[in-house]
Structure formats: structure tokens, C-alpha cells
Amino acid sequence: QVQLVESGGGLVQVGGSLKLSCAASGTIFRISAMGWYRQAPGKERELVASISRRGEINYADSVKGRFTISRDNAKNTVYLQMNSLKPEDTAVYYCNIHPPLAAYWGQGTQVTVSS
């Protein structure tokens, strides 16, 4: 059974930073690309960043230069370092494999950026 548990969200002021973590159980992590996704109120869930098993990385244009995705395969954990946060980054952040599977969505972690 695969479980993905996100943590690290919170309330931060504009320009601040947060680091999200996603701990994965099961063997899926070692064989999959991973992604961070977010869903803002009234909007569809979108891909923020992805990282392959070998470390190939892609970012949404809206976060390039501000967010950094990384993974620790020994710890089955993927991270999202978020700097220079903007109000439009406010959303629930989720991790999943990439491309995502519906069965793997977790509770997410709320990020709120106040202006």
C-alpha cells in the first residue's frame, strides 16, 4: 500500500520561505518520478515541479527561479523549497508520482501567503 504524507505548510508573509516534505511508503518512490502539485481555491490542481528518479527536474513557469524540488531516495522523501513566496502561491500542496495516480492523493499541506 502506498502512502504519501505531506508536511511543512503554514502561514508566511510575502517574500518568505517554506520547505515542504513528502514522505513515501512502499516501493513506488524508488521507481517513480515524483511531483509536487497545488490546488488553489476555485482552481484546478496543477503541477508545480517534478523530479525523475535520476534527478531530471521541471518547473511550472510560475515558480521557476523561486522553488526547488529535490529528493532523497534513501529516505523515500521529496522536498519542495519555496522562496520569495507570493500571494498567488497560496494553495493546498500535494505530492504524488508523476504523472499522478488518483489513488495516491493524500491530504496535502496548506500554504498561505499573506500580503
Describe this structure in words.
The protein is mainly β and 115 residues long. The protein is built from one helix and ten strands. It has one helix spanning 28-31, and strands at 3-7, 10-13, 18-25, 34-39, 46-51, 57-59, 67-72, 77-82, 91-97, 109-114. A hairpin with a 5-residue loop joins strand 5 and strand 6. The chain is globular and about 40 Å long.
Basic shape: globular
Strand-pairing-aware structural class: mainly beta
Percent helix range:
under 10%
Report the mean per-residue pLDDT as an integer. 95
In percent, how much strand structure appears in the residues? over 45%
Overall number of strands:
10
- What is the chain-wise order of helices and strands? EEEHEEEEEEE
Largest beta sheet, briefly?
A: 6 strands, mixed
Low-confidence stretches: none
